[in-house]
Amino acid sequence: MPPRLRSALSAVLITLSCLLVPFGALALWATYGLTDTGRYVTTMAPLATDPDVREAVADAVGDSLLHEAGHRLDTGPLRSSVRPFVHDAVRSFTQTQAFRLAWDAGNRVTHDAVLRALRDDRDEAAAEPVTVDFAPVTAQVKQQLSDEHIPLAARIPVQHTAVAVLPADELTSLRKGFHVLEVAGFWLPLAAVAFAAAGIALAVRRRRAIAATALGTALGGALLGLAVAVGRALTLAGLPGDVPRPAAGAVYDALTGTLRTVSWLLLGLGLTVALTTWLTRNLRPARLVRRLRGPKEPAPAPAQEPTRVQA
């Protein structure tokens, strides 16, 4: 193969590899990070002690309890006076070990339900909404309210109400996207590595090709970190007005923590390899000796004998 064609093909393959780096990392994170229930529960577990998340849970559960009690009981005159006690009791409950256990159990049940729905191969007509029952959490809150002698706490209804977390009309598109993501999570990183190896093998100047691949990988890591930051801003901006932004931000940061770590690793690894390649090229002993000696002085021209003229 002519050297010019080899260089062009190598450049194309290395460019494709660098372009696939952020997308491959994103697909790999989504496929093997978010779809593992144990890893997901472990990631979400620290949020049970986050003040913003606990405050959001206290407001949501307290309002839900008062709403259910108002439907079944005549609490109109007492609603305004009971509300602070209910919210304080729920807020106190969020600081207990029981809440942390309930938080982990709720996340595990929700994650399992969503995964089962996404991996279900039934047709669209048979699709049903994904629902989760949070009655055990309500029962624990009710028991604590009763222990603190809050009025009407013992009469709060605890029913096995199915709370929808995924509507049925969105399941079809989500299943297609999930299946594509599972395929991409395996093939995109593999393709990025294969293109990089082929590009370096075809390169006429392999040291330069390695440096270019490393710098492209570092750039891909930086773009991935930027995408995570931009995605956070867009996600929080698109939330409904009744969703607390600090709690949603804490959840987003917990879910994307691994992705941010991967972006920093790609950036650091790429810069390290590029710097090492440059140092090993420019700090070789022979090259250093030539630089220290400076440019070679031209050899003096041989002296010419004077021309004798005969009389």
Description of the molecule:
- It contains 11 helices and 2 strands; from the N terminus they run H-H-H-H-H-E-H-E-H-H-H-H-H.
- By secondary structure, it is mainly alpha-helical.
- A two-stranded antiparallel sheet has the order 1-2.
- Helix 7 runs antiparallel to helix 8 (206-237).
- The model has no long low-confidence stretch (mean pLDDT 77).
Query: What ranges have pLDDT less than 50 throughout 5 or more consecutive residues?
Result: none
Helix-and-strand structural type: mainly alpha
Radius of gyration from CA coordinates: 32 Å
Largest sheet, strands/sense/barrel: 2 strands, antiparallel
Oligomeric state of the chains? Answer: single chain
Shape estimate: elongated
Determine the strand fraction and express it as a percent band. under 5%
Report the mean per-residue pLDDT as an integer: 77
User: How many β-strand runs?
Assistant: 2
Distance between the termini: 69 Å
Strand order in the sheet with the most strands: 1-2
What is the count of helical runs? Answer: 11
From N to C, what is the helix and strand string?
Answer: HHHHHEHEHHHHH
Share of helix, binned: over 70%
Which characteristics define this entry?
single chain, 3% strand, mainly alpha, 311 residues
In short:
Helix 1 runs antiparallel to helix 7 and helix 8 runs antiparallel to helix 10 (257-282). The chain contains eleven helices and two strands, in the order H-H-H-H-H-E-H-E-H-H-H-H-H. It is 72% helix and 3% strand.
